[in-house]
Amino acid sequence: MPDVFQSIDEIDADKQTMIAERLESRAAMPKFVAVRDAYFEAIDLPSVGHLLELGCGTGAVCRAIATWPGFEGEVSGSDLSESLINTAERLTDAAGIKGIKFLQADGQGSTAHEGDFDMVLGHTVISHVADPDAFLSEALRLVRPGGRVVIHDGDYASMTFDTGAPEYDKVLPAKYFDAIIANPFVMREMPRRLSQMGVRSSEAIGAVVLEAGTGEYFPGIIRNYAPIAVAAGVVSDAETAGWIAALDRALEHQSFFASCNFVTYVFEREA
Ligand SMILES: C[S@@+](CC[C@H](N)C(=O)[O-])C[C@H]1O[C@@H](n2cnc3c(N)ncnc32)[C@H](O)[C@@H]1O
Question: Does the Cβ of 63 fall within 6 Å of ligand 1?
Fold first, then answer.
């Protein structure tokens, strides 16, 4: 079952809008801002040079880089989806941020020049692409010799829910992933994938996003992706309705729990 993020331009307009809004709202959630800022600091985000975000979606991470204190470099963002690139341009103009270049391109292989960038980032993209190794090779091809590649994403296989309904909590996440996350194990596979490519990661930075009692991000996954999972045929209406009812009860009683690990890997292209 293909991941919806591989074909955003082909889905209904209302689902495209929901996804764009979710990307923007997640980027603004304090927990996710803290995780992103912590890894920007840990990797010592360069203040000069040309940075590329592969799979930039609505451009939230590109804008965070462009407005990072002291940043004086150039930012480009590319994405497979033309409609998300249009949204990224519109939101960036509306925010009055100048100088970010957005372009439509496949992060698994493109005509962009080899070695054009000082740093290449992939932020919550590798879990969605059809071919993670092709994505890693393209990132390494685009960065200059000696430049760094930064891959940040959820170890989504670690995502766990407790709505008080184990018949849904233990079964439905994996089914949802069939429709929305092509590679839920990819972040734990990264050391092995990089080793097979002859690349050594210099850093692995871990973070946990956790919501207890109440929640914002994880309840949104259960609710917002229900129509996509149903349309993909991986869950039934009755299952999503049952899970959402359990979620509503858990939120009402402040008994909800969900968490997921996130990892950032940093590695260099050989000089
Ligand atoms: C979860 S979104 C992340 C967007 C953005 N990086 C962020 O964190 O807000 C995943 C993105 O990957 C893009 N994508 C999926 N496959 C891709 C590919 N082969 N090349 C480039 N982008 C791709 C989707 O269009 C989508 O914008």
Answer: no
CB 99 within 8 A of CB 74: yes
Residue-wise pLDDT tens digits, 205-239: 999 999 999 999 999 999 999 999 999 999 999 99
Q: How many CB atoms lie within 10 A of CB 32?
A: 19
d(CA 12, CA 253): 35
180 close to ligand 1 (CB < 6 Angstrom): no
Q: Is 129 in the pocket of ligand 1 (CB under 6 A)?
A: yes
Choose among 150, 130, 154: nearest CA to 139: 150
At residue 107, what are phi and psi to the nearest 5 degrees? -75, 0
Distance CA(80)–CA(119), nearest Å, equals 19
CA of 136 to the centre of ligand 1 (A): 14
Atom of ligand 1 nearest to the CA of 60: 9
Res 110: pLDDT: 84
Domains annotated on the chain, with CATH: 4-156+182-208+260-268 (3.40.50.150)
* Pocket perturbation via mutation, ligand 1, pick of 4, 5, 138, 183 by most ligand atoms within 8 A of CB: 5
Q: Is 31 helix (H, G, I), strand (E, B) or coil?
A: helix
Separation of CA 164 and ligand 1 centre (Å): 32
Tens-digit pLDDT profile for residues 252-261: 999 999 999 9
